[in-house]
Amino acid sequence: MIELIYKVEWTRPLIKIRLIVYERLLRTQDDFVWPVDTAFMGRFIIDVEFLDLKICHMNDGEPSSVWSYDGNSQCVEAQRSTLHCLSRMFDEAIHADLTIITADGTLRAHKAILSASSPVFQSMFHHNLKEKESSTIHIEDMSLESCTALLSYLYGAIKQEDFRKHCLPLLGAANKYDIGSLKDLCEENLLEDINSDNVLEMLNEAWLYQLHKLKKGCLTFLFEFGKIYDVKDDEINNLFQHADRELVMEMFQVMLTISNPE
Question: What positions does the domain BTB occupy (predicted)?
């Protein structure tokens, strides 16, 4: 048996309705079918966010969360302690052996942490490059604040608000330094934040960094849900003038497909 706690959000073209948190016990496949009572006619989306997921054993033992490391609180506490130590290493520059020069300031870090997180950084410090000799690297395409967010992520100490604020610079860094996990997280975060004001920027970023899920989400938002009419004309004209030709062609292909489904 599976017990899950989830939150449901209905997203309509112009309004969002946040519903209450539900707790549900699933015993058979029939329990996965949930009827929706609504008088709304037309297309709408229901987002389901799972807040917890517990497995109940057949002998009616105590349910255990799938996100609690098999219920082993010692493992959870050990991980928290390790992350706290890593955070202190960064915040207090404990035995730091690397200087990072950003666009508007410098930071102290550790070669081992960066090398373990990125094959690009590892290559810098492994081969006889100037970064290895000087123990200094230049990341001058990032501000001090954005680079701090990047290092906070690598040290396991980034805050959610900082991640969201610096998501686009983090995406650029993830692509540049081949940090796959960060790139995936950035894509998921951007996918959740698509709106009429930023959809064209998101689409361009998706094309630039080959983020297929984000690109699909933007095109769906624009054409399947008709949000192309909410975007300002000058923004669309600017996209057509400066965007990659293949991207513009793909947009037209999607638009034609939606207009002529047969």
Answer: 96-155
